[in-house]
Amino acid sequence: MKTINVAVNKVTHNQGIYPRFSTDIDRIRLFSELIECGAHFPPIKVVQHDGFYVLLDGCHRLEAYKQLEKPKIPVEIWKIDQRHWRLAAARFNNLSSKPLSRQELQKTIRDAWEIDDLRDMNEIAHELGCSERYVRKILKPVHDTEKEKLKKEVISLKKEGLSNKEIAKKTDTPRTTIRRVISENKLPNREAISDEDKHTGGGQNGTVPKWPPFKDAENPREDENPPLESAVGYCYRNKPDEIANNDCFIKEPRSIIPELEKLDQKKVIRNGTSAQTNQPCLTLSEKQALRAMELAGAGWNVEQITKRIDRTEQFVRNVAASVIALFQNQSSKHPLAGRSHAEIAESLDMDTSVVEFIDEIVTHLPGVIPERKNIWWWLRENFPKYRSGAVGGGSLIDIVRYETIYWKAIADNMLPSWEEEKEQMKPLEELPQDIEKRFLNYMDLIDELIDIANKGGFKADKITQAVLQRCNMVVTIQNKLRGKLGQRNISAEDNKNRESTG
Predict the structure, then answer these.
(1) For tag attachment on the chain, is the N or C end more exposed, with fewer CB atoms within 10 Å?
(2) The domain containing residue 484 runs over which residues?
(3) Strands of 335-423, DSSP E
(4) How far apart are CA 320 and CA 238, in angstroms?
(5) Are residues 297 and 355 in the same domain?
């Protein structure tokens, strides 16, 4: 990425990839007035293509320069693959003082999938700063249409006598998907087994089985549900969505619960003497909570875990959320930090003893429960489909929301706003006291404005417009101050160099 000045007429506004439906005339007029008064705006973002510069971000700034008949405009030239222009433009615009509307964001998601052929929902979600679940929701009608189209094509080709391998090649679709479509529509599925199939689950007598056979008759089947206390060692369960080979079973991890119960058979009680006790240290809820996390770490989804431990999906998700909440408590500046076990339990509708037990496991047996990031990803993949009522502070949704902000900041090599070091504020003490006080008051004011916005306090369009105009003026002043400070630093460095070489 580099910054240069280019001719305004060399910048093209490709509406095909630009995310905004329209431009704001008042915003363009404001930018024009500020530029005339000497304001300096950040460079617009472009990519170079066929001798021109395709606009990714800065439509209103570009139009303001055109209105003022400015010959050149500062641009940042980015090197981005053409398939990703649309997502990059949406990401840049969404980070501006005027984020994309819901309709603009949804259209970007659909166009990235259908036009740019970006078929990774997680990638789209990451680029746009939204959840994969939201992307999946927007693309569901598109996905359903594609599945229906594929089904009709597969049925038609099968009736023509083509084999599964030929259909897969013709439709550019995995053979496992072809088999599923054929099975769901009860079409004949007999074909010769190739050498390729010998290690991918090919059956005998020239047939391809619907699912691989169970590895051992002694292993429990899906319809059998042994009690939690007997879940020691390994057992294998059929996992129908994986038919890559004969070993496509989900392995149930060894549980640490029996070992914990053995340790509790001898406890130090009363006056420091050791005595035998028959009182179990683990309640059923505590054992179920620990087993839920062990299974989540092994890749089981919430439905499988629910069936295995005989508890609700809400219980399983809340246990995972409580693990994250305990990590969040370790940061004194986290918005949800400083809560007691009882407060975490109340916000998640859990027993306090269960939260206390999980805290002990996380503290003393950290290898038993999945790592913090893995728990977060598991929750994102197993989020509830529906919810009702308001989102309470410290609830599952609130915990995951802050955790998403945390890991996004880590991915961008940044610290979340609440984890910035106090030392970063120390240089302010070098300012005159009255300036320092006014600056801190200004920061408090910004926090209050953000709080009002979060509570929906800016309902009138005129109020919103006035606030945004003043925020834009503040940004302009910041840029001017940054420019002055940068010039001063460069001058100081030049003087230092002259002294060292003199």
Answers:
(1) C
(2) 429-501
(3) none
(4) 25
(5) yes
The single-letter code of the amino acid at 239 is K
Q: Give the pLDDT mean for 139-162.
A: 86
CA-nearest of 149, 209, 152, 204 to 176 is: 209
Hey, which bits of 170-270 come out as E strands?
236-238, 249-251, 266-269
Dihedral class, residue 55 (left if φ above 0, else alpha if ψ from -120 to 50, else beta): beta
Side chain identity at residue 141, one-letter code: P
Question: What is the Cα–Cα distance from 176 to 173, expressed in whole angstroms?
Answer: 8
Max CA pair span of the chain:
91
157: in domain: yes
**Residue 370: Cβ-neighbour burial (10 angstroms; 0-12, 13-18, 19+):** buried
Residues 334 and 479 in one domain: no
Helix (H, G, I), strand (E, B) or coil at 48: strand
Report which secondary-structure segment, H or E, holds 480.
helix 461-501
Residue 109 contacts residue 128 (beta carbons within 8 Å): yes
pLDDT digits (tens, 9 = 90+) for 184-234: 776 665 443 344 443 444 443 433 333 333 333 333 333 334 334 333 333
Interval 52-91: pLDDT, tens: 999 999 999 999 999 999 999 999 999 888 889 999 999 9
Which residue type is seen at 497? Answer: N
Say if residue 381 is in the same domain as residue 329.
Answer: yes
3-state secondary structure 161-177: CCCHHHHHHHHCCCHHH
